[in-house]
Amino acid sequence: MLPGGWFVAVFRLSAESLVQLVSESVPERVLSGVLADNLRARGLTASAGERRSWDRSLPLLARDLVEAGLGGVEMLIEYQLPLTSKRADVVLAGVDRRTGGDAYVIVELKQWGQAELYEDHPGMVLVPAMSHRPKLHPVLQVSGYCDYLADFAGAVAEHRDAVRGVAYLHNAADPDVHHLFDHVQDERTRLFTKCS
Fold first, then answer.
1. What's the confidence (pLDDT) of residue 6?
2. pTM exceeds 0.85
3. For the chain, which ranges sit under pLDDT 70?
4. Residue 167: phi, psi to the nearest 5?
5. Is residue 150 part of a domain?
6. How far apart are CA 17 and CA 13, in angstroms?
7. In what order do the strands lie in the sheet with 116-118?
8. I want to staple 59 with a disulfide (CB 3.0 to 4.6 A). Which of 22, 89, 141, 156 is the partner?
9. Are 66 and 105 part of one and the same domain?
């Protein structure tokens, strides 16, 4: 595990615990309340959009992890990247089954139902339902988080493969974002949809 204080998350629990928390609360909105309270304790506020995103995306990710037999994986929600204002949606912390060493997967959650590459710039995408301004390709976004964390944290600097990234577009089917898959260039970062 990385040295104490390196993993500063708004909320930290296993995928199984998150599924249980959500299933015991009606409505699921209680999750965003807990996260907003924890964020407020750090002197930050959550926008209405962030709260909606938490309520829609986090339970779905946790259920997917449980269904995949990964219910014990720890979810570090809204992980603050060291010395920046940037936060990764989720960092999954566990043990690599192959090596027995620590393993971290940074997850960038997107609620996009459709997206396409922006003109001739493969690093940018357009999301028709959101705006006409291009956004950074989610694989590049999560790849940047991986590089930053691996460079910053000495505990994983020698084991860069211990940090991987996933962009999860859980509202999109593969055909709705098919051009975005062309930008996945290595084993370290992946792009998943609800039909992957």
1. 46
2. yes
3. 1-8, 25-29, 153-160, 195-196
4. -100, 120
5. yes
6. 6
7. 116-118, 121-126, 135-136
8. 22
9. no
CA distance 118 to 17: 39
Based on the domain organization, do 137 and 166 belong to the same domain?
A: yes
pLDDT for 71 equals 94
Q: Are both 53 and 133 inside the same structural domain?
A: no
DSSP helix/strand/coil, 73: coil
Would you say residue 90 lies in a domain? no
Eight-state DSSP code of residue 96: -
In three-state secondary structure terms, 147 is: helix
Q: What is the DSSP string of 1-37?
A: -PPTTS-EEEEEEEHHHHHHHHHHSSSTTHHHHHHHH
Per-residue exposure over 4-33, b if at least 16 CB sit within 10 Å of its own CB, e if not = eebbebbbbbbbbebbebbeeeeeeeebbe
User: pLDDT value at position 30?
Assistant: 77
Q: Are residues 6 and 60 in the same domain?
A: yes
Count of domains for the chain: 2
Q: Which amino acid is at 141?
A: Q
Q: Which residues of 61-85 are buried (b: 16+ CB within 10 A; e: fewer)?
A: bbbbbbeeebbebbbbbbbbbeeee
Judge whether 127 and 115 are in contact, CB under 8 Å: yes
Indicate whether 166 and 192 sit together in one domain.
yes
Domain with residue 192: its CATH number is 3.40.1350
Which among 68, 76, 67 is positioned nearest to 94, based on CA atoms? 76
pLDDT at 2: 44
**Cis preceding-peptide flag for 27 (omega within 30 of 0):** yes
